[in-house]
Design a protein that fits this description.
By secondary structure, chain A is an alpha+beta fold. Chain A has three domains: 13-132 and 197-273, Aldehyde Oxidoreductase, domain 3 (Alpha-Beta Complex); 289-456 and 610-758, Aldehyde Oxidoreductase, domain 4; 462-607, 2-Layer Sandwich (Aldehyde Oxidoreductase, domain 4), CATH 3.30.365.10. In chain A, helix 14 links the parallel strand 18 (475-479) and strand 19 (507-509). The longest helix of chain A has 28 residues, at 529-556. Chain A is globular. At the A-B interface, strand 17, helix 16 and strand 24 of A face strand 17, helix 16 and strand 24 of B.
């Protein structure tokens, strides 16, 4: 039984010793260097480009401008392809753009023999523009007569959806209802993966090979095919170890351009490695959102009717687009259940900022911040216990979601909250901190969250797996699902070992994906790895086991129905699991059999047509220094029901990382733009305030294990949920400490000072 | 129909443009450098080794001596493993040797940060020996009381086999028989592949990864496991493009030592690249043989009884051992059929020369030289036409070999000889050259050959294949069988395309093998690629096709039995092959299907329990300058029946290369040892006379295509046979020109001068 054990990460030694190879470690020393010329205006048109001087620079091999590239629009979002065009992501991207939509847009590219020549060439290119006004917020870009960024987006609205459940107007007529409103604002933040966006591409036998730091190699293959208008089989993507992605690399970022570059230099190898600055302004960010909530509530706290209006800042390009705002509405609709009616009205709006895409949480952190702040405010104003009001309204046990058919099987919310309360000493501290005065005050706050696993039925969910048995009975596992630092390879190892009946040390997951060889899987996103990938692992492990037992039948002359594999041996179940023969002997005998030799392998695709609710909560304790406008986070706990734990230690590590991101989101991080030029001002890790371990208290990760019945190994989402509830828990702790509920994050001293002043505390 | 077309080699562009990556191209720039210390005596014992000074040299990381390595004996021959120990190859090799058996034996190894430090360290190691007498020939080493090289080889005989068919003593009593005898001698030669023996090894997640220039990655995995006494699954071999092997790389050469080296430096990457000199003296060579033939013949030329005695110089280590001499006896027994009896008596004998192993032809060039020279001499002395005497005795149509069950289905010998005669203008020139005098004389000669394909039933023959379909209907093909420069990938492409019904451009053979991922196949040897590999390709292509047609049934609503794939489209066979849907549409629809998504792949193992006779002949025309002792090869043709031609141009290229090797074998090449020290004297490409294109006339390759019914695509051996008949054809042409039959090759001026003088021509 390797499941449930905290086996060491299978890639631990390689990564700790610095031996693990990442994209840039693998590049040939003779690679050409590609660099991108970025626009120095935020909105406009390139009218002229003069590359004459640049081309004279020694070492410059090729310059490609926005006037040269094919006029093909392609999508970039890392979703599974759909044969139904209604499910296609926005196709608004070109390899290089004449129409400039953000400060730093890609308008030309240089390929040179070395970094210096490439950089010099960038500086030598002369560009002339036609400039339009800069629009950094949906308010600005939705204005009547505003300059249009994409022709097919009137008023710069990429998409607007409005859904009403129940008769809202009728519902609010109920007598005695109290109306609450709140306006919430969340920042645009960046993923800040350690490894920047890096790829290198070359041609081999007429095909394009791209080695890329991506979460989604098989999807990148398709998008590159679309972007270059070539058959998808002409593209091969290889994904080595990657240094973090967090959703940014669930987009096709520069692989299509890199692919095009190599075609322009006769297939020579071209490396395209982005600087940290380029990653900040030119890749993807989390959508900044403004959310208006309106709730009609009975005095006892029961929600009767609610409405949710959100403006999601999409930035310059479509990427994952409206999906993020839409996922937010799901949180709004499902975490709490209104008795009568519910309205959602969401806008995804283009502006001249960085294109917003997927980021760990995928819209959930924004909405949970709003919803969990709002309910806290309602509780406070109604003088109700904040936990009581939540449990009065929270999704009930037995709830079946009409769209996904997901079932809430367990009383996870109560179980998680009980653990969180106990850890943070909730009852004691709620009481202790209730009558503070003085400049430093403490408080405890909490937040629930909801998340669903994987993307069915929005997109298809498939995963393919192949297993290859060696002569010693050990097994390689190939999977399209990707290790991106989250520990996927380790849990895949444990799953395969469990079903095959072999020690985990005998399972070797092939960590790198190669779309030419690796069974198709869509990659790492939607917290789907353990949920969808596991379906393929179990299916294929059982196929391989069946083959093994069929061989064992011949070898041992026992009925396969009386045989099993335990700890790498064929055992006779009818005789107290007597060991008959080792898998090593069986595999060797089978492979070299004079009469019926066979290389024992198995491969198949699993399609998953379910998903599962993941739940949990965070509790935070803070000390607020009112005059300084500073929050000190004293303690924090996340409690997750992610189903059965495959590996408690790596699960906890996932939670720690997510909690850190939620702290950054709530307290420190935001992208700041110059309103005049549209230039991103803090595009580096000095000016962008990413919290580190030193900024954190002890981060406590706890779990409730309810075996998820729709999942091959009882698991459900854990990758993204840890990022979700932290910001609202901190915000509510500050409210508890100071009486001031602050609806705009991050809770920086600038914000706190203004709020405390307005509240008369300063 | 891509079979039968001379499509360009699929790796042509990569190789011609210099872009194809070979082992050394792929090594990380931070690799440690391994170098081997070779003994400076040919026979003896290392009594003491002082590495003290060497270890002080800056940059030296580790020195390993023959006193350090584990005392494990392992085999090196690249044969499939057998679960029956009776089939095991000699296990006489250690990683490093205290007991020195050849000049240049491996006695220590250095691992250093760079080449210079490694080389300096080698020079600084002090060695003391106990020396024994040098034995370079079987005559010397078989002498009573000779020093024993291997304890289990009495009289230094690795193996001796003696087989008699029929009653020999009785048979030779037949009245009127004429007895003929001949003694033949063939040289020890080296393969001289362009890429020297190169590998690099490192550890990953506790396992050993070796990137190696080898013909047999899956076999190397097993041998490294044996050599280090670790489970075979702990070893992973990756084989990139390789620059020739010719059988030398059908041995485990330095992969085990390289693997051991990395374990001694904590798994750091160690590169071990041999110099040309090391390849010559320290890897493998073709067995030099001395063959005695005795034939009892009726006056009409009919062979009645024959005997064959051979001494095969095995050199210092066992490697492929007796298999080479044994294969020679098969040629002797099968090319011609005696009426009554036949005796073979063969010895494989250790000496202090380079270890002899597999080399293109595997014993056949030696025996065919003897047999085809001998029959020519008989014809000449009996005044019979040399073709007539051959056809009187040659293996008849319908012959069934009792051991292999091979059937000689066709009259290939006549068909091949007819073509060869016509090309060389045999009848005309035999007459024209019959009464020459003067110093320059011309002659034509010929030789038949026999070869059988693959190694069944000596060893198992299996090949596994996997095919992976892309969204555009193109397909990757993975196979354990290896491209080693012979064009295997190209013919595999054509085979897969034919059976799948898609254009060959849509087939992408994964050229590199990786034992973790690549379906098991034993590699390139025994001219087995198109014969055994094809069985797997056909089997798996049919499996994939069946899957495709099953999907097509759903998609088109037609019965799968009425559907076929032609030129990448699903067609309705009952309606004049009407195109219903493209494979691209089908593959995309299937992969992303909302209800039953599937990545279309197929994988299986094919076991081949047949082999097939390959036949043919060579005709040569020479001009001999008698006083100068020089032969000018004027023209040469090889005619092969290798079954159906998959790719006529690459088949011809195979033949050209083999003919060149046969010319070298017959006229130029030999390893020369210093009899006093046992040191190889010509271990470089300046002193070792390898012929080049400039030394050759036009090399004509012709074919007879008899579809081989035991083969998946009608093919049989072509890889090795071209090397076989050339030397005897040249020798027989010299006989025709001068009347002197020379039984020792190469036919260098030294040999010719002595022979012509003895014959009274000079």
């Amino acid at each position: 039984m390797s499941i449930g054990q905290s086996i060491p990460r299978v890639d631990a030694w390689e990564k700790v010793s610095g031996r693990a190879k990442y994209t840039d470690d693998l590049v040939d020393r003779n690679a050409l260097i590609g660099k991108i010329l970025h626009s120095t205006i935020a909105n406009g048109l390139v009218t002229k480009m003069d590359t004459g001087e640049a081309e004279k620079i020694p070492g410059v091999v090729k310059i490609i401008t926005c006037f040269d590239v094919p006029d093909i629009c392609f999508p970039t979002a890392g979703h599974p392809w759909s044969t139904d065009p209604a499910h296609w992501d926005p196709m608004d991207r070109r390899l290089l753009n004449r129409r400039v939509r953000l400060y730093g847009d890609d308008i030309a590219a240089v390929i040179a023999e070395d970094e210096v020549a490439a950089s010099r060439a960038l500086r030598a290119i002369k560009v002339e523009y036609e400039e339009y006004p800069v629009m950094l917020t949906p308010e600005e870009s939705m204005k009547e007569g505003a300059n249009l960024l994409h022709e097919n987006c009137p008023n710069n609205i990429l998409k607007h959806t409005s859904v009403t459940d129940g008769d809202f107007e009728e519902a609010i007529k109920e007598e005695g209802l109290i109306k609450f409103e709140g306006d919430f604002e969340t920042p645009m933040v960046q993923h800040c993966h350690i490894e920047t966006v890096t790829s290198w591409a070359y041609m081999e036998n007429g095909r394009i090979v791209i080695v890329a730091s991506t979460q989604i190699p098989h999807i990148i293959r398709r998008i590159v095919g679309q972007a270059l208008d070539i058959p998808w089989g002409q593209v091969r993507i290889i994904k080595p170890y990657i240094g973090g992605g967090f959703g940014n690399k669930q987009d096709s970022l520069y692989e299509p351009l890199n692919a095009y570059m190599t075609t322009q230099v006769g297939g020579r190898l071209v490396k395209l490695e982005l600087s940290r600055e380029e990653v900040f302004f030119g890749t993807r960010v989390r959508h900044g959102e403004k959310i208006h909530l309106e709730s009609w509530v009975r005095p006892n706290g029961r929600l009767v009717a609610r409405s949710y209006t959100a403006y999601s800042n999409q930035g310059a390009y479509g990427s994952h687009g409206h999906g993020i705002a839409a996922k937010g509405t799901n949180v709004f609709r499902q975490l709490y259940r209104d008795e009568k009616a519910r309205k959602t009205d969401i806008y995804t709006v283009h502006t001249n900022t960085a294109a917003a895409g997927a980021m760990r949480g995928y819209g959930t952190p924004q909405t949970v911040f709003a919803v969990e702040s709002h309910i806290e405010d309602i509780a406070r104003q109604l003088k109700l216990d904040p936990l009581e009001i939540r449990f009065l309204n929270v999704m009930p046990v037995g709830f079946v979601d009409p769209f996904t058919k997901n079932v809430n099987y367990f009383d996870s919310f109560h179980q998680c909250v009980d653990k969180g309360k106990a850890y943070i000493k909730w009852d004691e501290k709620r009481k202790l901190y209730q009558n503070q005065c003085g400049p430093q005050r403490r408080g405890v706050g909490m937040s629930l969250f909801w998340y669903n696993t994987a993307v069915w039925p929005i997109s298809i969910e498939i995963s393919s797996c192949r297993m290859v048995m060696n002569q010693d009975g050990s097994v390689q596992v190939q999977l399209g699902e990707t290790e991106i630092g989250q520990g996927a390879d380790t849990v895949f190892t444990q799953m395969a070992a469990e079903t095959l009946g072999i020690p985990w040390e005998q399972v070797h997951v092939i960590s790198a994906q190669d779309t030419d060889i690796t069974p198709f899987g869509t990659g790492a996103y939607g917290s789907r790895q353990t949920y969808v990938g596991s379906a393929a692992i179990k299916k294929v492990a059982l196929m391989l086991k069946e083959k093994v037992l069929r061989c064992a039948e011949t070898l041992t002359r026992m009925s396969a129905s009386s045989l099993d594999i335990i700890d790498g041996n064929i055992v006779l179940t009818t005789n107290n699991n007597q060991v008959l023969v080792s898998l090593a002997e069986l595999a060797t005998e089978t492979l070299y059999h004079v009469d019926h030799a066979e290389h024992l392998t198995a491969e198949s695709t699993a399609q998953v047509k379910t998903n599962a609710f993941s739940f949990g909560c965070a509790f935070a304790e803070v000390e607020v220094d009112i005059p300084l406008g500073k929050i000190k986070l004293l303690d924090m706990v996340n409690v997750h029901d992610c189903g059965r734990l495959i590996n408690p230690k790596t699960a906890a590590a996932q939670v720690h990382g997510g909690m850190s991101m939620s702290i950054g989101f709530g307290m420190y991080e935001q992208l700041l733009y110059d309103p005049r030029t549209g230039k991103l001002l803090n595009s580096n890790l000095l000016d962008y305030k990413l919290p580190t371990m030193l900024d954190h208290p002890h981060l406590e990760a706890q779990f409730v294990e309810n075996y998820e019945p729709s999942s091959a190994y009882g698991t459900k989402a854990l990758g993204e949920p840890p990022t979700v509830p932290g910001a609202s828990a901190i915000r509510n702790a500050v409210l508890h400490a100071t009486g001031v509920g602050i609806n705009k994050i991050p809770l920086t001293p600038h914000v706190l000072f203004a709020e405390f002043k307005a509240a008369g505390l300063i």
